[in-house]
Amino acid sequence: MLKVSNITKSFESITAVNNISFEVRKGEIFGLLGENGAGKTTTLRMLATMLKPTSGTAELCGYDVINEPEKVRSHIGILFGGETGLYDRLTAAENIAYFGELNDMSKSEIKERISQLTRIFDMDEYINKKAGKFSKGMKQKVAFARSIVHNPDIMLFDEPTSGLDVTAILEVHKFILDCRQQNKTIVLSSHIMSEVEKLCDRIGIIHKGVLVASGTIEELKKTYGKDSLEEVFIELVGDRNEI
Amino acid sequence: MKFRHVWIVFRKEIKDLLRDKKTIISSFLVPMILIPVIFLFVGGGAQKMEKDISENITIALSQNSNTADIRKIVEDGIIKHNTNIKLINVDNPIDAVKQEKVRLVLEFDADYAQKLKNDKPFTVKIYYDKSKNKSDGAVSILTDAINQYNQQIVGQRLTALGLSPDILQPAKVEETNVAEPGKSGNPTLVMILPMMLGLLVTIGGIAAATDIVAGEKERNTFEPLLTTKPSRLSILTGKYLTVTLFSFISVISTGIGYVIGYMINPNSLTMGASDGIGGFSLPLVATILVFITTILMGMTFSAVQIAISTFARSFREAQTYLSFLIFVALIPGYATMFMQPGDVQTYMYAVPILNTISAFKMVLGGNINYLNLVIALATSVIYVILSIMFAASLFKKEKVLFRS
Ligand SMILES: Nc1ncnc2c1ncn2[C@@H]1O[C@H](COP(=O)(O)OP(=O)(O)O)[C@@H](O)[C@H]1O
Ligand SMILES: [Mg+2]
């Protein structure tokens, strides 16, 4: 479903992502675990076709990020961390509809989808109100709805819980698990061990742009002879730091 | 690039911007209301000043000259045919000038009567206050009145000698304007309109341009937008057309503002300095060409604005950069403000901004040189293409798009 092959991204002086390869199967959550500056956002931006790989490539739903970026984009939904961005002067429905239109949905499809999403995320009260005055929680739900309006097969989450309070974090976790429920292919980047442990089927540990290990958590623990993911992480990342 | 996507982006941006009070105010209301208000205010002021200077001119005689005989000369000889001038009595004439109770004070030579009788010149001194507009302006009016009085006396003297006053005027002057009706243009409009237009085409798109890229980046909606299906070029084009539309809307709003101003007071458009805009017509083809040139200038500026907004790291930064752009548009406008169409050099028809202003001046002036007009048009097309290419290249640069 999602196949990354030797992808590399260099900015002028640094190699932000260095020859990374991994695969994610349908209905699976793959966690990219790494510290700040490890290269998580850069990797996800390349998958979302926002950045062009310096070398290597990736295939999403059978489409190549370099040669068929439009096709790739119409099959992905993204939720990137930080402050949720909405168009404040548009209503919740208009915000969602815009992304539906941009992804080539018809008017009737959009209408139907919005009423469905309104039910799912319980947005009845404010679906036709302008987003500018929404609480953080309301905005978050609109952002969820927007990211899946076109029913993408692949979801990319880049540190989606950064800066959120506990309830909001739980909402995000629930949303991610719901996406898996719907058999979507998911890549989740995070620097939070517990989050990755809770949600991911398989993880890859990324450090200074290099994918230093990958597998299920059990596999990783076994390979490195440790009792917890935390210890595995320290082992791998700490080791590298000493070199 | 898909037209469908461009249209979706364009429609959304328009809807979004029309709900923004800031944009509405700066693009619609300011030109529509502020411009006629400024013009009426300044124009009305200028007209009032002219009127104030030429009407209700009060004068007085100095203490020494304030005799019945002199009063008679002044009232019956000098100001008789100038009903706007009045001779009044004041206690302290010089102070009265300073306090603006009278515009000026006349003082006759003490022995004026003797001199007058002996056909010798006598002096009339005018005391006035140069720091006061009204006083200053009255001097020439009084000088004219005294000249009329002189001619009258000369006539009397010649007649007494048995000569006709005509011997003093061997040649008479008669003026006939041979310019075709409507071809003389309007110097004041030629000064003001092109500058205003250049400025407004620039300012009109700024609010939209700031909001549409730098604003979108700052609100964190840019990344989700870029991961939707449309190509970057489609998104850019939709946004670009929005900015272009807004810069034209403000030009149109200004036009409406002018019409409103004209309806309230026809003279306000020329700031009261000339006789309104009546009586001149614009040649159709040239007008269309200059209109297209103006549109092209708007398109160039819109692209530059989008580029700047893309380049800026934040909304604030975009605002700062874009306000500099106003000066860029102002400088050529101001520099050529007092230039009349005949003063415009050929190279000016090829310089950005200046080419539009020059072409506009030429058409308003009425003397059309189509070669120059075509130069202005062709160079404008080149600038549009260059500016769009520049904006597009920035919009594709990862380094610019994803920096913070
Ligand atoms: N647009 C860019 N230009 C230059 N360097 C960048 C750019 N984006 C990211 N980097 C650098 O690449 C490295 C990886 O960054 P990033 O992918 O954001 O890491 P993470 O998301 O894991 O924190 C960092 O050193 C960062 O400074
Ligand atoms: Mg990151």
Task: Tell me about this structure.
The complex is a heterodimer of chains A (243) and B (404). In chain A, helix 3 (92-102) packs across helix 4 and helix 3 runs parallel beside helix 5 (136-148). Chain A is an alpha/beta fold and 243 residues long. Chain A has helices spanning 40-47, 69-74, 92-102, 107-121, 136-148, 166-181, 193-199, 217-224, 229-242; strands spanning 2-10, 15-24, 29-33, 55-60, 63-64, 76-80, 154-158, 185-190, 202-207, 210-215. Chain A is built from nine helices and ten strands. Chain B has helices at 3-18, 21-54, 68-78, 93-98, 112-117, 133-160, 187-204, 206-218, 222-226, 232-264, 284-311, 315-335, 354-365, 370-396, 398-401; strands at 57-61, 85-87, 104-108, 124-127. In chain B, strands 2-1-3-4 form a four-stranded mixed β-sheet. Residues 271-279 of chain B have low confidence and may be disordered.
The fraction of residues assigned to DSSP E strands of chain A is 15-25%
Q: What's the helical proportion of residues of chain B?
A: 55-70%
What is the number of helices of chain A? 9
- Give the count of helical stretches of chain B: 15
The gyration radius over C-alpha positions of chain A equals 18 Å
Which residues of chain A form runs of ≥5 with pLDDT under 50? none
Order of helices and strands of chain B: HHEHEHEHEHHHHHHHHHH
In short:
The complex is a heterodimer of chains A (243) and B (404). Chain A has 243 residues and is α/β, with parallel strands linked by helices.
Topology:
The complex is a heterodimer of chains A (243) and B (404).
Chain A: E1 2-10, E2 15-24, E3 29-33, H1 40-47, E4 55-60, E5 63-64, H2 69-74, E6 76-80, H3 92-102, H4 107-121, H5 136-148, E7 154-158, H6 166-181, E8 185-190, H7 193-199, E9 202-207, E10 210-215, H8 217-224, H9 229-242
Parallel strand pairs in A: 3-8, 3-9, 6-7, 7-8
Antiparallel strand pairs in A: 1-2, 1-4, 4-5, 9-10
Helix pairs in contact in A: 3-4, 3-5
Chain B: H1 3-18, H2 21-54, E1 57-61, H3 68-78, E2 85-87, H4 93-98, E3 104-108, H5 112-117, E4 124-127, H6 133-160, H7 187-204, H8 206-218, H9 222-226, H10 232-264, H11 284-311, H12 315-335, H13 354-365, H14 370-396, H15 398-401
Parallel strand pairs in B: 1-2, 1-3
Antiparallel strand pairs in B: 3-4
The structure holds adenosine-5'-diphosphate and magnesium ion (MG).
